[in-house]
Amino acid sequence: MAYSTDGRKRVLDFIHKGGRKAAAEHTFGISRRTIYNWLAAEDPFASEKPGPKSPRLMDYEALRQHVADFPDSTLAERARHFGVSTNSIFYVLSKLGITRKKRPRLTKSSVP
Fold first, then answer.
1. CB atoms near residue 15 (< 10 Å)
2. How many Cβ atoms from other residues are within 10 Å of residue 63's Cβ?
3. Domain extents in the chain
4. If pLDDT is split at 50, 70 and 90, which confidence band does 42 have?
5. Using CA atoms, how far apart are residues 28 and 20, in angstroms rounded to an integer?
6. Do residues 29 and 46 lie in contact, with contact meaning Cβ atoms separated by under 8 Å?
7. How confident is the model at residue 101, as a pLDDT?
């Protein structure tokens, strides 16, 4: 839950004026861990959005070469190799037009 900068300022002012962290916890209804995080932060009024900090870029040609070199590797093995999630590998492979390896289907006419 994100707290307003006004609320953060009131809590930090309370503590800097000599108030106890436990009293601030009960008075303002926030956790003590949150108070400690705000006190330790360089800028306690900046709120960060959750999630990745920057986009992950994958080298498509390196993945294409990896598929050529290791055709039997699974998505999980490729993901570990490139340090990304299996969903990322699946997405890039689909963009490259590379589908999973399919077995040839045996028909009655192909069986001797």
1. 16
2. 21
3. 5-40, 60-96
4. confident
5. 12
6. no
7. 62
CA–CA dist 75, 51 (Å, integer): 23
Produce one character per residue of 70-82: b if its CB has 16 or more CB atoms within 10 Å, e if not: eeeeeeeebbeeb
C-alpha triplet 70, 75, 77: angle, nearest 5°: 65
Both tokens assigned to 100: 């999973």
Residues 14-31: tens digit of each pLDDT: 999 999 999 999 999 999
Look up the pTM and report it: 0.44
Specify burial of residue 11 (Cβ count, 10 A radius: 0-12, 13-18, 19+): buried
The pLDDT tens digits for 43-81 are 888 766 666 655 567 889 999 999 999 988 889 999 999
